[in-house]
Design brief:
It contains nine helices and ten strands. The strands form three sheets. It has a five-stranded mixed β-sheet with strand order 7-6-8-5-9. α1 links the parallel β1 and β2. It is globular, with a radius of gyration of 17 Å. 43% of the residues are buried. InterPro entries: Solute-binding_3/MltF_N. Pfam families: SBP_bac_3 (PF00497).
Length: 239
Amino acid sequence: MTKLRLACIDSAAAPLFDLSPDGGVTRPGFEPEAAALVAAELGRELEWVILPWDDMIPAVQRGDADGVWCGQGIIPSRQEQVDFTRPYAVFNESVLVRAGDPARSPDDLRGYRVAAIANSANMRLAETFPGAELVPFGATDDVFADMIQAVRDGSVDAMVDDDVVVVPLGDDPEFDLAFTAETRNPWGVGVAKDRPELLAELDGALARVIADGRLRAVWEKWMPQLPFPEAALAEGAPA
């Protein structure tokens, strides 16, 4: 059976994905289960290529992985490097602060050190916060955990990431959810620009698991608190 090799980080970012107990062979969470649906639809064996965040797209460009399936918002800076499938998810973005911090809007972040992954949709949002000092993170094995720790220890005052992973942290006694921005960012699978046949295969498989409700079932299993973006996914075009 031909393998489908997908790149991602190994991180505690539930419910998207959680730390793998075996170095990447087994991965719990929404994204791994959604990817397994697509691999099965294509009759291919799924294999995860675990890499630092900044190495994922270069690995796909080199051919060391077939695609990046790892929280990739479809944004222009990434579209310049890889081609994207139709979206398999749509998320908003949230800001996390330490418990007791009064910030509840972008204007409240003036003078704050705000962390976000470099060159991400989250950083693009952070750039709109008036007077905030931006602190880019990247090039580590677990950048999400690094940002959480930076908020915890005061290295930064706030962090921006997708609502699906940040909102649950608002229930942690160490943190408060400052606010969520309704950005409606589509996520897709990034594929090397010289592999249009693979892109078409993945796109077709995604279309089928969206149309027949299988992707929705996985979404509602892992993220019942978030409404399934049925209309946006049915449209199918990367944004």
